[in-house]
Amino acid sequence: MHKKLTLILILILVLAQLCACGKPQAEPSPAAESEAAAPAELPEEEAPDEPDEPAGRTPDRVLTSTKYTAEVYIKTTQYGQYQIESREYAVSDGVSAAGLRAAGRGSYIRFFDQTVTEAGTVWYYDKSAGDWRSQALGDGLYASPVVVVELASGQTYFLALPRTFAMRENGSREHFPDRDGVLRTTKLRSGGVRIAMDGYGLAPDCVTDALVLTAPFGLDWSVDNCAKAWVTYVKNGDSHWCFDGYFRKSPSNYIPAGENYYYCCAASYCIRGYLGRMSRCKEAPALIILSLDTMSQRQNHYGYVPTTPGSEWLQGDYGIGPGFYDTRFNTDLLEIYISATRRLGKGMFEETMNRYLAFFSQVADISHITTENGGWLIPDYWHPDEITAPHTSLNHQASECLALYHAADLLNRKDLRELADRMLLAIEDTGSGWVMPNHNLYYSIKPDGTYVEGDYPYLTYNDLYYLREYLTGVNRTETDTLTYLMGEKLQWMEQNGVTGYEKG
User: Fold this and answer.
1) pLDDT(40) > 70
2) Containing H/E element for 495?
3) What does the angle CA 261 – CA 141 – CA 191 come to, to the nearest 5 degrees?
4) Are 167 and 103 in contact (CB under 8 A)?
5) Phi and psi (nearest 5°) for 365?
């Protein structure tokens, strides 16, 4: 019996040693070697040797407003002969939007690859029918500019399909419609559906761009949501949203130009469209933040977003080369930032606005033409190497004046309001000089006081209208000249069957 008890005790000791070997033992820290730790603190000494939990991502930047926060993650991943650069905006409302760009060489580029196990619906634009269609998630091949996959759980993928561009001179690019990407959905034998988005025809002188937005909710298809808006902007080939900004069809007098040539336009009108949908489309804030931050990156060291191509007209008349400053496009972009700040809350894009406003104020101070009573006419264009001072068009002057008033109100800046007052005074000083014998308005005035024909059908009228509406709303009385110019232009528009102008 004694021998049996001894054997049992030995067996227990062996088993205890084996169990002890199953758990890694902590190496004592220098402090532990010199100080006696209480028994309750021992687990804390052992904790560092336990496997660590995967660390969360660290954002490269954080954009913050009074209403939203967006963590920005920038990553470049190599895949064989090509790489994909990603710039993701993880917004505090749960939506994530990522711009993607592939560079290098590849017959096809895999931008998105996800297998899902739940039912869902695919929304796509049917170009032949000119309308949106939906079908159950299953086997399918889609070439719509945007495809939306909504799962039963509410998880949604908003996929702007890849577009391939050749990089041309002066920051322009050529689009290859025959290389537009596709989205393929495939039922798997094991169950579930594979969702894959591919681009095509990537060569060393090209890039392929795409966008993926992920949301924890479905889109509202009863309204004109952001997917519908995206297709409206791109379906006719007039514009594209790219990884590095908003690109419009290049005018024939731009350098370079061609059938499918595009340039980056500072006035990113698609963003204004998303802003108008923000109250009813929960996916809009992420798209707005991504787009505005992208355009902020295009702001040069002077403070403006340049028009990078050359213009035969500006080069010939004024010696203004590529990379020029267009006051109208940059002013329209400023208005977009102002509108976005009112909706997103303050704090996210004030630095961008202030850099631009500092530049505009400097150009105004140096390059203005003084009118009879001390008003300032601001030139439409500027370039560090310009030879001749350019003209001032009425539509530029009016729109810039209004934007300065809006910026002054938002940022509480007296200096901007005073500059706007000088520009308004210039319109009053030149007043009747803008009216042509046929009641149309002259397009512009040169530094020598000569007026030039060629005004837009209704754009200038609308600019005067918006400026007058603002002044009336803040109880300003300097509206007689604006009303007079609008009345003359209205006569001409009615006589010539022009529509599209504001009738409020």
Assistant:
1) no
2) helix 480-495
3) 140
4) no
5) -70, -40
Residue 440 within a domain:
no
Tokens 């060569």 correspond to 203
Structure tokens at 214: 């992920």
Residue 266's beta-bridge partner residues? none
Question: What domain range is 118 assigned to?
Answer: 61-303
| HSE-CB of 109 using CA atoms within 13 angstroms | 32
DSSP state of 170: G
| H or E segment and range at residue 115 | strand 106-116
H or E stretch at 455 = none
- Quick one: which H or E segment has residue 427? helix 414-430
Q: Which tokens go with 458?
A: 């209704």
Within 297-393, residue ranges assigned H as helices are 312-318, 327-344, 350-367
Structure confidence at residue 387 as a pLDDT band (50, 70, 90):
confident
Beta bridge partners of 104: 82
What is the rounded CA–CA span in Å between residue 49 and residue 349? 45
Q: What's the Rg (C-alpha) of the chain?
A: 31
CA distance 354 to 303: 9
Output the CA–CA distances (angstroms, integers) from residue 262 to 159, 326, 379, in the order listed: 22, 17, 25
The model's confidence at residue 415, banded by pLDDT at 50, 70 and 90, is very high
- The answer to whether 285 and 215 are in contact (CB under 8 A) is no
Q: Hey, how many other C-beta atoms are within 10 angstroms of the C-beta on 379?
A: 24
| Position 115 in a domain | yes
The DSSP string of 256-268 is S--TTEEEE-SS-
Residues in the chain, total: 504
53 in a domain, yes or no? no
Name residue 69's beta-bridge partners: 64
For residues 329 and 265, the answer to whether their CB atoms sit within 8 Å is yes
Which residue has tokens 């080069």? Answer: 315
Would the pTM count as exceeding 0.70? yes
Phi and psi at 19, nearest 5°, equal: -65, -40
Strands 376-377 and 369-370: antiparallel
Give the model's pLDDT for residue 56.
80
**Which residues, 6 or more positions from 53, have their beta carbon under 8 angstroms from its beta carbon?**
none
Number of independent structural domains in the chain: 1
Q: 279 burial class (0-12, 13-18, 19+ CB within 10 angstroms)?
A: exposed
pLDDT tens per residue, range 78-108:
999 999 999 999 999 999 999 999 999 999 9
Q: Which amino acid is at 108?
A: Y
**3-state secondary structure (DSSP) of residue 476:** coil
Beta strand pairing status for 392-393 and 369-370? unpaired
Centroid of chain to Cα 455: 30
Residue 484 falls inside a structural domain: no
d(CA 234, CA 222): 21
Q: What angle do CA 427, 430, 433 make, to 5 degrees?
A: 125
